[in-house]
Structure formats: structure tokens, C-alpha cells
Amino acid sequence: MGVPDSQQPDTFLQRVAYLIARHQQDQLTAGEAEELRAWLDAAPENRRFLEQWSDTRLLADKLQRFTQPDVNTAWEAFRAKHLTNAHPTEVPRKTFRLSRWHWSAAAAVVLLAGTAWYIQHSRPAAPIAQQQEQIPVRPGTSKAVLTLADGSTIQLDSAGNQVIAQGASNILQQQGQLRYDLQNPDAAPALNTLTTPRGGQFRVILPDGTAVWLNAASSITYPTAFREGARQVSITGEAYLEVTSKANHPFRVTINDQTTVDVLGTSFCISAYANENTINATLVSGAVKVNTGNTSRVLAPGQQAQISNGSITVSQTDTAAAIAWKNGEFYFNNADIPAIMRQLERWYDVHAVYEGNIPSRTFQGEIQRNLPLEDVLEGLQSTGIRFHMKGRNIIVQP
């Protein structure tokens, strides 16, 4: 299937685009070949333009970027600025009367867009059985797995409403949240673990009233009742906590079995993913003490502790960035592409594949976490890096 006669253009640059598209598909008639050859011989810039279409990756990029409205808009802008009363609106189809013409950025845009559009609209339709449409990748949802003291597991999601009986406690699941109702204060507490998969998040109200938001690929282990002494929980991945103040019962978080955070009453965020270089503890309000090895540091609100190789570095930070995920946003502050991809991998349950040498670029901005992945990647195109989906893989290209 070639470019039909009804799509043959009447304007100069559109005619060139049409001929290049026919050439790329080996569909030129003898007359059209002569016509294109005359244009190529008219200026070295013309031949260089044609040669770039032999780069198949560049061609694919053009086909993806340009649609007919782009062609029309670019053409009208170029014609109004450069061609009014300068060139005829119709060009004889056997040969170009203009031996040379002025190359400009606008002219190049029109030719790129026009050629891409003609090729795109002259492709034969594939049989339905052979078409492989990319299924949109949806954002994560409220889902988790609750592991009870006896090792049994319960799948949780945002739609479920149930009461789970466990020894001295009833566990209430409602609207994407767990809450513990202690039935027998004298019974020995048991340990539960709440785990979110990639593409999931969940909220739990602990027996003392502390609220915990778990980000994707994270977990928290906690007792079904807090007794005398410190209230102790263990966390992996990322979590935001609003701790209920109990002066005689400090709250202690163990992170990845190597770092602890001691709390009285406060709001803070822990980020401790295994594939990140540091463990980050960010204090929103109150006070916490961060301990690792023989080192301890007390944080004030607005400070972040970065823990790495047994040392703690404290700095001022934007707390909104640290807890943006809890509020339904990605918040990137001069984040490089690998750091951004790691967040997308966890939330959309996908895998980033890097092709070629990816330039060192950073991105700053906020993106809603409820968007389809394709929309997020479109927003990241401003970095100059190209992204496309293949199944559940993000292909990252320079």
C-alpha cells in the first residue's frame, strides 16, 4: 500500500516530503525519481537531509513524534513567515523550478514532519492477529499481604471489608486500611507483618494508635499489642509514620536490621530500599534520634539523616519531597534518570532497560502518581531522554 493519489500534496515542501516517503518505501515512479533527483542535485543540504532517513532509529522517532496536525501547523507557520509571495503554491510535478532554496529550522521541521506523516499514513494495516498493542500500564493501588503469627497470609486490597480474628485481637480491614481492636489485654502479643508488593501501598493503624503508610515494595513487622517499655517495630522499604505520643513508652523503629530510630511523638518518613545508596530518615515534626553502629544524631523538624556505611549525615531538606508519595505525587528534585526509574519500577511494577549511553540529565518537578505510566514518561521527555514501553519494560534510550 503506497501513498494514494488523493494524498499527493500541492505545496513545495509537502511535495518533497511526499517524494522522500515514496523513496523510503521503494515506490517512486520514473517521473517521481527524476523529480527527487533534481531536488537532491540542487543543494548539498538536500542530500544530507535524505541520508538521515537511512537511520532507522531516527526514522522511528520521527514517526512517533509527528502527526498530521503537527504537519499542518508547522507548514502554515513556515509558509506565512517564509513563502508568502515567494514561491508558487503549485509546483510542476516533473521537475522543480527552484534550483536552490533557503534551508531554515522551520523548513526542516516541515520536511521531517511531512515525511514522517506520509510514511505513517501509507503503511499497510497489519492483520488483527499479528497486531501487538501495548497495554497501558496502570498506576499502583491499595494492596498488601498480611502475615499472621501462625504464618498464614491474607490478601488485602482497597475494596475488601472484613474482620480477622487473631487471638487477643480483632483486625478490621476497611477502605484500604487495617486497624487493631484489642479484645484481651492480658493475652501475650503476637507478631504480624504487613507487606506491600511492587505496585501497592497500604495504611495500618497500630494497636497504640500510631498511623503507618507503607509505600510500594515495603514491609512493617509489629506486635498485636504494646506492653511495658519501648514500642518496637521493624521496617523495610519506605514508610511514613505519625506516632502517638506516650511519654513512658518510646517508639523504636528498626530499619533493615542495622539502624534504629527512637521516637517520642512525631511524624517522620523512613526510606530504606535495598537498591538505594543510603537510608534516609526525614523528620516532619517532633524529634527523633537516629542510631547506627556507635553513632547517634538527633534530628529537628525539616532535617534529614542519610545513613551509609555506619555514618550519619544530617542536612536541611524539603519535607514535602520526602512524603510526596504519601500524598499521591512523585516529587523529583534534580533527580537523575536511574533514580526516577527506580521509583517508577516500584510503583508501576515494571523494569527499566537501558540501551546505549544515557546522558547525565536531571529532572525537577511533580507528577501525579495516579497517571498511567505512559503519561509520566511523556512528561519526562523534557530531559532529552527517550522512553518507550515494551510489555512491562521501560526502554530508556539517549
From TrEMBL:
Domain named FecR protein: residues: 193-289
Residue span(s) of domain Protein FecR C-terminal: 329-396
GO molecular function, one term: sigma factor antagonist activity
One Pfam family matching this protein: FecR_C
InterPro entries attached to this UniProt entry: FecR, FecR_C, Ferrdict_sens_TM
Coiled coil: none
Family annotation (Gene3D superfamilies): 2.60.120.1440, 3.55.50.30
Source taxon at top rank: Bacteria
Protein name, as recorded: FecR family protein
Species this protein is from: Chitinophaga oryzae
Lineage, uppermost ranks: Bacteria, Pseudomonadati, Bacteroidota, Chitinophagia, Chitinophagales
